[in-house]
Amino acid sequence: MMMSMSMMMMVTLMCGVKLSDKVACEELRGRLGLEDVVTVLQRNRLRWYGHVLGKGDSEWVKKCMDFVVERVRPGGDQREHGRK
Fold first, then answer.
1. Fewer beta carbons below 10 Å: N end or C end of the chain?
2. Which pairs from 30-35 meet CB under 8 Å and 24+ separation?
3. pLDDT tens track for 37-53
4. pTM of the model
5. Tens of pLDDT along 12-30?
6. Nearest-angstrom CA–CA distance, 31 and 19
């Protein structure tokens, strides 16, 4: 979310648009020929996931997919646990 907001602030500066002009984000990205950051990141994650699935079962990356992390700390809001 923060990445998307900071990108849109840069896009508005590059287009010379003020926030008071109320121009849609999609229109500004269209002017510059840019894609949404979230869409690009999702596509890259899926590409990496497909790459990992193609690896052999003996590869360390493939073994990490089945790795189970045992919980050491209690769950929940950590701030609440510190106030006791």
1. C
2. none
3. 888 999 999 999 998 88
4. 0.53
5. 888 888 888 888 888 888 8
6. 16
